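Hi there. Long-time user, first ticket. I'm pasting a complex I've been working with (about 303 residues overall). I'd like to know whether the download I got is complete or cut off, because the file seemed smaller than I expected. Thanks.
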Amino acid sequence: MIYTTITRRGIDLEPLSSEERAFLARLEVLFRKRPDWDEFARAWGELGRAMLWKEGTVPVGHPVYRICQDLEMRLGITQGLVAPPDYRDQLVDLIEERFGSAYRFCQATGIDQGHLSRVLAGKKHFSQETFAHVLEALGVEIVLMDRAEVAERAWLDVGPVSRPEQGAMIPAHSG
Amino acid sequence: MSREGELVECAFLMPLVRDSDRKRHRPSRWRALENALYGEFGGYSGPEPLHRVHRAAHPSLGEYESDVGLRVSDRSRRYIVALPRERLDDLRQILRQAANTFDQEAVYLSVAGRVEFVRGTEANGYLP
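Hi, the file is complete. Here it is re-exported in full:
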């Protein structure tokens, strides 16, 4: 079972423990009530500490953590408080997924890390040549999509099912 | 090792729009900030929605004058971080990077009630 993020990144749910699945199932119930963006951000942190992380470190980058963030961003987008993701958000995820860090990506491609940071922050753009180089290094192609469809996906295309009305996006039990 | 009583409460505001073009921030920018706060300090309280209201001699970018004469800023998210005083500079460094990442001229930071504005330069870099 794969959870798909708003940047089309797949997160495998199979390795999750029963406690982690139970946590995500409770979070999904809250998410479907469409709470305020800030309220949901507070809630997942508090619920995560209560059910999973206790007094320990919050596991930044863990699949559960990433799903929490993704759900939070979906609410922010649908409430008009966060911009829909664009190619730069996809680049962030692809770089992390395929190179581990921006540093390693830049080492491998020869792209200046400062320039990459400025592009990701929306302050600069890649030249056509550099962008082609980035796409080649990541092994991806450009697909043109209507903006309305991009925005719709932020809410509707959650997890292994395509629409929330169809059922739970995070199974409480495996199998 | 600091005891809990030696922690200092810091609050900072992150406006919901960029300074330069008034556009909302993209998801990866907010995620980068959360990652930095959880990774460096183990977490935070909030975020809370906030419209900062104050009396200013001159409104800065993103502020406007309310009908009762107060300067009101854009809606922001307020984060509260409790940390040992010796780690204050670590938070300031994150906020310098956040100022660049979120395209903010400065980030409002309150350290135990004392307000400062944290500004980023290119040399400070960006949130990873």
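A couple of notes from our side: The longest strand of chain B covers residues 71-84. Confidence is low (pLDDT under 50) at residues 53-59 of chain B.
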